[in-house]
Amino acid sequence: MRGLDLVGGDTVAIVAPSGPPDPVRLRQGVRRLEALGLKVVTGRNVLARGGLDYLAGSDEERAADLQAAWCDPAVAAVFCARGGYGAGRLLGLLDWAAMREAGPKVLLGSSDITALHHVFGLELGLPTLHGPMPACAVITDGAEPEPRTWEHLLAALEGRPLPVPGEEMLVPGRAEGVLAGGNLSLLASLCGTRYQPAFADRLVFLEDVGEEPYRIDRMLTQLLQAGAFDGARGFVLGSWVGCGDPMPVLRDRLVPLGVPILAGLPVGHGSPQLSIWLGALGAIDTESCSLAGQFGGWDQAS
Prior knowledge:
By secondary structure, this protein is an alpha/beta fold. The protein has two domains: 11-155, 3-Layer(aba) Sandwich (Rossmann fold); 164-300, LD-carboxypeptidase A C-terminal domain-like (Glucose Oxidase, domain 1), CATH 3.50.30.60. Helices cover 28% and strands 22% of the residues. It has nine helices and 14 strands. An eight-stranded mixed β-sheet has the order 6-14-13-8-9-10-11-7. β4, α4 and β5 form a beta-alpha-beta unit. α8 (213-225) packs parallel to α9. The two termini are 13 Å apart.
């Protein structure tokens, strides 16, 4: 297994492939990373604004920053500033051949960055890190970053990811496999595209924010009817902030699949936000009610 193990002096690039970051939070996030001894550079267009105020500049600007950071041999990791909306608009603008040639490095992000996690796995065959972003409240607000969030992020970046506890096992059992998935809304939005999700032989991670239970039902039903969950080995359910009580619909739609389901992991939105490797091996552990056994090494991806 090869760990990332970022060390003092390594360069991290921050880009904004989705929504516009708050400049104050972005500066604070940069300071947090620099305090670790990292060299931090920001994308040329990270504070750009375009015609649509929910996007951090034009699609071309955002794609150019992401690709430039990924292809820069001096950059060890690429951190997305925040989520929001817009990453899916970039998928057809990136030169995947050039990014493959750039070799392995880490992509960090969550929420809307699910679109990039999913397609980086398909196009580049690399694990990516689902975790807190440098211009988000859980990292920037307060005298220090939220402690558990920060601890898990640093451990993951050092190649020693920590187990992530759940609250309950909806369906008991043990399941192992490559962890995949992310934000439910983004995964559903990829149905019918060339990047339609297919989770056979995978552990499926799902989370969302601000969605009513009937909308969660609709998105799960869409993925079920598209065959995305056929052959899945198990499910890992993260946070559902602002979603009312989603557990009845999650049980109704997923329990009949008859595979282990672990729920209540603090991964996704809210606080804390623990970090998990997508595209790397993981295990649903019945005895400890946790997601464990993840590896951040490139040779563990499939």
